[in-house]
Amino acid sequence: MRRDIFQAIADPVRREIIDLLSVEPMTVQAIAERFAISRPAISRHLKILKECGLVDLQQNGRENYYYIDPAQLVPAFMWLEQYRKLWEDKIDSFEEYLMKLKTERNNE
Predict the structure, then answer these.
(1) How far apart are CA 43 and CA 65, in angstroms?
(2) DSSP 3-state assignment of 56?
(3) What confidence tens digit (pLDDT) does each residue in 5-14 have?
(4) Residue 53 DSSP class
(5) Are the beta carbons of 25 and 58 closer than 8 angstroms?
(6) Pick from 8, 40, 81, 100: CA 20 to 30 A from residue 46's CA?
């Protein structure tokens, strides 16, 4: 089953795993030591990340190291980027509204 990249990055644990692997390749055990969840749970998260192509495995001796394939994040980034300007404008507008309310209250 090939999963959608947005399914993968929707989970905060998987986003944190991506952050860890962006620094260096790691074994399941090394990743699991960073979380308060079981090693099998980490393995399930890694399986989802692998199914959507965000991580892959490389065997080094007896150990399997997971590493990130950042190129797979590009489509998600590009999709999100198109909405960045829209949300920035909305946040700026909201901030202006709050400043207006604050000014009005201070002038009362």
Answers:
(1) 12
(2) strand
(3) 888 888 999 9
(4) T
(5) yes
(6) 81
